[in-house]
């Protein structure tokens, strides 16, 4: 590695840009590695898993860029700044930076003072400094912002290159109008709706974008609603961008008529994550996405999912169920809809790699599941929800479900399979699990995730460790329901 030239090292470290632990370790290898890693780390220094209010050195680095006059003024106001150091910084850190995270900046400035007014002054000086020192601004998370940073003299030149904006609706509309004036090349726009209002300013920002590719909207508030068609302006603005948007994520609390007209027009979508609850079966037939690759939908919408999948273009690689709550006993037509869903997947999505399935443990469903495994040979990850529609299924039934499931996986699992997640009404006896792991020998190393606490018992832990040591399984973890649904494995 030490003999690799700088260009190759840069490409390697670029792949680690989201892995702060590895990048920080690389800093310590030698000067060459350090010189390559620092610009990567400082491109977006606020995105790493750091308790910023404890990191006084980061505060000190930024303060060191302030002029003596500004430092003196801030000190007179009551801010506690680091002692002046005449040692020259090894790097011009801010010249590498291309991002601002308002929440993190607020956390950092709390080091200088506990008083809100003094923190505001510090933040103002930091933002002014960033506008002068940053070569460009690519990423801005301005949730709960209090500073009109786009009115600094240099702001226009920095904001012209803004690529990603994360915001929320607690922000005064004037901020969105200000951004719309200078930011017209945003590719990714993420909005958290925490304050129902008239969304004219956000709609204006959407309308002026020339190449918006990714849009995300998430409602994060309770009742009451703001009207009968609260998202109309947002959806009509998005309608003007159907030729550029290919990633769409919408979580609306309220249903409206406009979405029925607008959503079918996004004919270039590659990612679709939304709720189809308000649409009838006839309406859903007009939702045709031939380029769709990633599709996420709620557990309860099996029929809608089947229709979307059937009308897709066969390019789907990820089909995933999302939910913030657990399944209950009120899933209508569960047996029929789950069987049809499995069939639609293996008929229409032969290239699928990441797949969620929910079905009852009947012989017919197990047969359909096995057909799917034999056809979908690209599968890397399976999320299996075996659900019996019973309050407390007998343990005997849970073990029978588990034994049948493991037999099917041994017989028919594709060779690419690296990860399996199990939820609900399935449990593995010690004997069945050992037989499965023994027969898995010689296949790709496997990660398993489940939420049943039985696997924390001593005899199971001993068995799992045995097959970990033998290289049969990479991981076998028992987690909470939400972790099983949401946690990311590196497969």
Structure, explained:
Among the domains are: 1-43; 271-433, Leucine-rich repeat, LRR (right-handed beta-alpha superhelix) (Alpha-Beta Horseshoe). It is α/β, with parallel strands linked by helices and 491 residues long. The protein has 20 helices and 14 strands. It is globular, with a radius of gyration of 26 Å. It has a 14-stranded parallel sheet with strand order 1-2-3-4-5-6-7-8-9-10-11-12-13-14. Helix 13 (281-284) links the parallel strand 7 and strand 8 (294-298).
Secondary structure layout:
Elements: H1 6-14, H2 20-26, H3 31-43, H4 56-63, H5 68-77, E1 99-101, H6 102-109, H7 116-133, E2 139-141, H8 155-159, E3 164-168, H9 173-182, E4 188-193, H10 200-207, E5 214-219, H11 232-239, E6 247-251, H12 257-262, E7 271-273, H13 281-284, E8 294-298, H14 302-310, E9 318-322, H15 334-348, E10 354-359, H16 363-375, E11 381-386, H17 395-412, E12 419-424, H18 430-439, E13 446-450, H19 458-469, E14 473-478, H20 481-486
Parallel strand pairs: 1-2, 2-3, 3-4, 4-5, 5-6, 6-7, 7-8, 8-9, 9-10, 10-11, 11-12, 12-13, 13-14
Helix pairs in contact: 1-3, 2-3, 9-10, 10-11, 14-15, 15-16, 16-17, 17-18, 18-19
Organism: Rhizophagus irregularis (strain DAOM 197198w) (Glomus intraradices)
Protein name: F-box domain-containing protein
Describe the structure concisely:
This protein is α/β, with parallel strands linked by helices and 491 residues long. The chain has helices spanning 6-14, 20-26, 31-43, 56-63, 68-77, 102-109, 116-133, 155-159, 173-182, 200-207, 232-239, 257-262, 281-284, 302-310, 334-348, 363-375, 395-412, 430-439, 458-469, 481-486; strands spanning 99-101, 139-141, 164-168, 188-193, 214-219, 247-251, 271-273, 294-298, 318-322, 354-359, 381-386, 419-424, 446-450, 473-478. Strand 7 (271-273), helix 13 (281-284) and strand 8 form a beta-alpha-beta unit.
